[in-house]
Design goal:
302 residues, alpha+beta, Immunoglobulin-like, 3 domains, four-stranded mixed beta sheet, four-stranded antiparallel beta sheet, 5 helices, 15 strands, elongated
Length: 302
């Protein structure tokens, strides 16, 4: 593509919301011509990939995504302007015979600007070839309530690591010697409790791998198990007991219908014990612990 068309094409791609193509075009334009600006375009390309991963993982809100896209657009537009200044306008100035001192002054200004960009956009430590990630798992009620049972794994970008690690008593596990290729990837926790339990991971302290050793805290919320218990009340002669009040564990209430039927969702697992109290017209019919399970159960009242 001709030099004079590049800045216009970049602006068009940004208007079409194709930031990745704009960054690729700028990298091609600066490759072998301006290493500093090429590196800045490379950084923007990496930022676009990170944002896409975060968006796919649902880590950022729509407002946060819009803010990050606006920052990237501003950086790409600046690089487009730099290309126009260095190559497109410089070529035009040469053809129109501008004084040499004008060209020199413009070049000095560009060098100052590139130095500022290198310091602020590219100033970062050297990254190691491998790095460790420490996982710290705690209850949503507070970081001091560690979850020290079960196993964990990580999904880095679209890659799930091959091995699970057990959590120690303090809720920690360390994944060692992760490849530098994962730097900048999104990170998601996979948790495997020691027994079947429902849970939500409601927060994490970092969404992106830094490429250096880091600790990431994950807050986890256990969800109560629920057993849908259906019952049919019968007297000693097998007749339905209607209009009876059923109370379970002192908090759940139901009333039997004309066929003696009732149904309650009990926030306990199958096989757990629940305390049943059944009354009718002020008379206590039943008061005992019952082992609950899903499905229909006939309860005989003597």
């Amino acid at each position: 593509m001709a030099f004079e068309k590049i800045s216009e094409r970049v602006r068009q791609l940004i208007q079409e919301n194709d930031q990745r193509a704009a960054a690729d075009l700028l990298m091609q334009a600066f490759r072998d011509k301006n290493l500093q600006l090429f590196n800045i375009a490379l950084v923007q390309q990496a930022n676009i990939k990170k944002l896409a991963d975060q968006s796919a993982a649902g880590i950022l809100s729509p407002d946060e995504i819009n803010r990050e896209q606006a920052k990237t657009n501003a950086a790409l537009l600046h690089l487009s302007d730099e290309h126009a200044r260095l190559y497109e306008r410089a070529a035009s100035a040469k053809s129109t015979g501008l004084p040499r001192w004008v060209l020199l002054a413009g070049g000095a200004l560009v060098l100052v600007l590139v130095g500022w960009l290198m310091k602020n956009a590219l100033g970062r430590p050297d990254y190691p070839k491998t790095f460790d990630v420490e996982v710290i798992l705690h209850d949503k009620a507070g970081e001091n309530i560690s979850i020290g049972e079960g196993e964990v794994n990580l999904r880095l970008g679209e890659v799930e690591l091959q091995s699970r690690l057990p959590l120690d008593a303090s809720g920690k596990a360390t994944f060692k010697d992760l490849s530098e290729k994962f730097r900048g990837d999104s990170v998601r926790l996979l948790y495997f409790p020691p027994k079947a339990r429902r849970f939500n991971i409601i927060n994490q302290s970092a969404a992106i791998l830094s490429g250096q050793r880091q600790s990431i805290r994950f807050a986890l919320e256990f969800l109560p198990d629920t057993t849908v218990y259906e019952g049919g009340l019968r007297d000693s002669k097998g007749r339905a007991i209607s209009e009876a009040q059923i109370t379970i564990d002192g908090t759940l209430h139901a009333t039997s219908d004309a066929k003696g039927y009732f149904k309650l969702a009990i926030p306990k697992a199958n096989g757990a014990s629940a305390y049943f109290e059944i009354e009718k017209n002020g008379k206590r019919l039943l008061k005992q612990d019952v082992t609950i399970s899903s499905g229909y159960h006939e309860i005989s009242i003597q």
